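[Target chain]
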Amino acid sequence: MNLSDSQTGGGVPRRVSAMEAVLAHLRGAIERGEYLIGDRLPSEAELCRTLEVSRPVLREALRALQTMGLTVSKTGKGTFVVANTVEDPTFGDYAASDLLEVRRHIEIPVAGYAALRRTPENLDHLAHLLDRMERETDTTAWVAMDSLFHLAVAEAAQNPVFRRVIEEIRDALARQSAFLNELGGRREQSNREHRAIVEALADGSEHDAVEAMEHHLDRVSTTLTDIVRATRTDSPTEGGPEA
């Protein structure tokens, strides 16, 4: 079974990464009951041979399974199934639903304050950061800058408490960003949403900044929901080159 070159089923095929294909396969197996709660998944070596993927790809998929709450990894013992449905992914110390609730209550008004209080230096920093993000092709580097972007917006609001709150959830933001980019293909869309936020700040429009940040978080929420609700019928099919 080769999952290193796959396409989704359904009407219009879309490109998926090898990690996404492996994740869909393992998630489907768990949800179908091929692996029961309490079962240990096959070893990494066995899964790599069976699925014909590299160990780094497999490990990314196994980490995603843990984020979804389907498995736990025990050092020296392996990966065990702890649930057969995805409820609420966890990013670091925080559940996705809790993280998004806080982000809506903090980042949306913060964007409005930033539009009214930002300095020329704040705008220069945000514009430079956004330019780098739009040129970046490495996911890990982009994710790091994504959390820096949201921190920079908080800094532009000129209230150190806002900055401290974003600092507290920064690791969770980075984990969520990596998850959404790997499984939801969010990078280009996020860049456009970030651009709209920066333009609103540059215009000094509190209304537009609030609206842009709200739209951004709505899209994050929608992508998360799509991933959580995905079923085994969405799993990639084996076959030829990607369409």
Notes: The radius of gyration is 20 Å. Residues 110 and 157 are 6 Å apart (CA to CA). The mean pLDDT is 87. Strands lie at 7-8, 71-74, 78-81, 90-91, 94-95, 236-237.
